[in-house]
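S1.2 Input.
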Amino acid sequence: MAPGLPDRVDCAHLADHATVLERVYALGSMPRLQDLLADTRGSVRARFAFAMVESGRAGARVTIQAEPTLVCQRCLQGFAFAVAGSSDIEFSGGSRWSETDSQREVYATDDGFISLRELAEEELLLALPIVAVCGAPHSCGRAPAYEAQEQSAERSRPFAVLQDLLKRT
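S1.3 Output.
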């Protein structure tokens, strides 16, 4: 994010003026994302298009693009994963309002203010796969020692003697 640009914004004010904001955040600045990353380098590009929605409340379309390096859950190696996501959200500010009032995703505000970085982080988390798996199905999850054991097991047949005994009886 460029210096001098605020992270906490008044969503109602921005929606009244149909403001569109674009920000770029470092992946390392998103604490909820850290356990999923193999490398914290990189960034997420976020676009926030604020508007008043049908219910008369403030809302926004949040769009993100990133290519984080995730940890593959099979081989535990890092791999780049291109991700893009978009959500239409509506901001709620009071406890009287329920989520069933809207057809959009609901995002709670803090006295009408939101953190754009937290909103971008939330959208990125929603766009990531539940279980990250790299795209190398033939080598992923197979340690070299396991492959060598598998090949030697094909050459030596420890139960061949039993098979010969069964044929004789």
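S1.4 Remarks. The CA atoms of residues 85 and 127 lie 5 Å apart.
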